Amino acid sequence: MITSAYIHIPFCEKICHYCDFTKFFYEEKMADEYLVALENEIATTINKPRQKMKTIFVGGGTPTALNNRQLLKLVQMIEHYFDVDQVSEYTFEANPGDLTKEKIKILKNHGVTRISMGVQVMDDKMLEQLGRLHRIKDVYQNVNDLIQIGLTNISIDLMYSLPNQSFEGFSKTLEEALQFNLPHYSAYSLQIEPKTIFYQRYKKGTLTKPPEEIEADMYEHLRKEMRDHGYISMKLAILLSPDMKVSII
Ligand code: SF4
């Protein structure tokens, strides 16, 4: 029996320099066609409406790259096929910068319980270097809007061991991110993946990551800061209680 659903929305407003996920530049017409195909796909898998699920996760790409009309169509489609009122967690991935108040309200009004935001680093120069669309001010704006509208189960993703990132730079990002006091944080060290802009630069020798010792120091610092702020790792949290403050590192 299917207990969890993952729905992929493969569109982004901008393609980040390190990203090897399945994604395309957002185009309204292509996204419309994708939503039609998605509904057909769900209908062939789910044989009756309002199927019960434990969790639903809508990821990408960037689901919030869809315009308001398309986002509404997507959440209504999900509501039709899945019983969103009884799921224990219904998550949407979002990017700071394209998560408007209108989009937050659409998500909240249609049963979404959790937002996972790709923040990556609290440093505008680093964000530009990564090819990200957003800037730090967008993160503050989105966290404020989400809390104001009542979607308070927020998770943010961070990255470390970035090109030109010092230990102190990462430490500052972590400190600033932790002051939001969110229920969940994830942190990943940058991997240089084939078929990305970073990979091309890495091969040419124009891009380097911090030395391994610095990356290890960042990891140890991350673990310590998470523990000191009362977070426990995901594995332990699943064993103990789903409501605990969690970090994935
Ligand atoms: S927003 Fe996410 S999925 Fe889209 S290009 Fe950037 S990292 Fe990849």
Structure report:
The protein has one domain (4-248): Alpha-Beta Horseshoe (pyruvate-formate lyase- activating enzyme), CATH 3.80.30. It is 43% helix and 19% strand. The chain has helices spanning 28-45, 68-81, 101-109, 124-130, 136-149, 167-178, 197-204, 212-228, 234-240, and strands at 4-9, 11-12, 24-25, 55-60, 89-94, 114-120, 154-160, 184-189, 232-233, 246-248. The strands form 2 sheets. An 8-stranded parallel sheet has the order 1-4-5-6-7-8-10-9. Helix 2 (68-81) links the parallel strand 4 (55-60) and strand 5 (89-94). Helix 1 packs parallel to helix 2 and helix 6 (167-178) packs parallel to helix 8 (212-228). The mean pLDDT is 94. Residues 12, 15-16, 19, 21, 23, 60-62, 95, 118 line the site of iron/sulfur cluster.
Descriptive tags:
249 residues, alpha/beta, pyruvate-formate lyase- activating enzyme, 8-stranded parallel sheet, two-stranded parallel sheet, 9 helices, globular
